[in-house]
Write a structure and sequence with these properties.
Strand content: 5-15%
Distance between the termini: 46 Å
Mean pLDDT: 97
Helix content: 40-55%
Largest sheet: 6 strands, parallel
Shape: elongated
Number of helices: 13
Order of helices and strands: EHEEHEHEHEEHEHHEHHHHHH
Structural class: alpha/beta
Low-confidence stretches: none
Strand order of the largest sheet: 3-2-1-4-5-6
Bound molecules: ligand NA7
């Protein structure tokens, strides 16, 4: 398929690379010039990238960035024609998604929200799980592209439902990780070996994908970003906004949001979100580490 790929960050670069590898005709655009994808064309503007494409795939930071690349100066809108699909893998506001979809719908363009989970490694290996909102027909048309970048898709309903579900997923990741980080901090302060705690977790019902994934990085004190703290913070804020719009109270997430705020003020926003642990360590006056670190 002819695909315009907009946004070559940690996730987007790997995803566009996998589209090229699967034989699709890809043209990329990134805000900061110089980011390239081997085998893909490069366009000077989002509109130029979208010219003649069947699908415009977005993977940018947040709601404002999506608005800018679609509706801003030189935005994709100028090149939209009837029958095109915009697929958005950025994690953004569900209500803004519905508004954006209505705006491009006037031109006969369909919006599919397709945020994903699987982190940097899933993007690199083409094993992402897509959480999709949109009508059945366009989602079906996108299947070859989903297959090139991921291992599974879950269609959660009409446009906006992918984003809504993604927020519900990240809410859980943030809270599960916070529980893990607090447990590690307390156990270390009380003299328990974190490596042994991790082995115990693995053998019990406390085990989770989040702990399996983050545990080894923490024991090695490796906070290089797989999923940057600033983006998880953005998702927590989006979740609290969506909850407010729906008149839902999320007291635990409100508290965790404050942790992310303070961790950002400490200068850790570009580290992995696991670096929120460092704030707990600072308060407790301990450091969690495995023998290798
Ligand atoms: P990154 O690595 O922070 O990449 C973000 C991308 O978004 C990158 O290409 C940015 O361009 C682009 N960006 C950010 N702001 C804008 C604006 N205003 N206009 C155009 N492009 C912009 O994030 P990830 O790849 O890890 O994640 C992307 C999304 O997936 C995000 O929503 C996550 O929550 C999930 P730059 O190179 O900085 O010029």
């Amino acid at each position: 398929m002819r695909v315009a790929f907009v946004g070559l960050g940690i996730m987007g670069h790997a995803m566009a690379t996998n589209l090229v590898k699967a034989g699709h005709e890809v043209t990329v655009w990134n805000r900061t010039p110089g980011k390239l994808v081997e085998g893909a064309g490069v366009a000077p503007t989002p509109a130029a990238a979208a010219q003649g494409a069947e699908v415009v795939w977005l993977c940018v930071s947040d709601t404002d960035a999506v608005e800018r690349v679609i509706f801003g100066v030189d935005g994709v809108t100028a090149a939209l024609t009837e029958g095109m699909i915009i697929a958005d893998s950025s994690t953004i506001s569900p209500s803004a998604t519905v508004k954006f979809a209505d705006r491009v719908g006037i031109k006969g363009v369909t919006w599919v929200d397709a945020p994903m989970t699987g982190s940097k490694i899933g993007a690199r290996d083409g094993t992402l799980v897509f959480i999709v909102g949109g009508s059945e027909a366009p989602v079906e048309r996108l299947k070859p592209l989903f297959a090139a970048m991921g291992k599974k898709i879950f269609r959660m309903g009409e446009t906006g439902k992918g984003q809504a579900t993604k927020l519900a997923m990240n809410l859980q990741i943030a809270l599960i990780f916070e529980g893990f980080a607090e447990a590690l901090t307390l156990a270390t302060k009380l003299g328990v070996d974190p490596q042994q705690l991790l082995s115990l977790i693995e053998a019990t019902m406390v085990r989770s994908g989040v702990v399996d994934y983050k545990g080894p990085f923490i024991l090695q004190r490796d906070f290089t970003p797989n999923f940057p703290l600033r983006l998880m913070h953005k998702d927590i804020r989006l979740t609290l906004e969506a909850a407010k719009e729906a008149r839902v109270k999320l007291p635990a997430l409100e508290t965790v949001e404050e942790i992310y705020e303070m961790a950002s003020e400490e200068g850790n926003r570009d580290l992995d979100y696991a670096a929120t642990l460092m704030l707990l360590e600072k308060w407790a006056g301990v450091q969690v580490k495995g023998k290798a670190a």
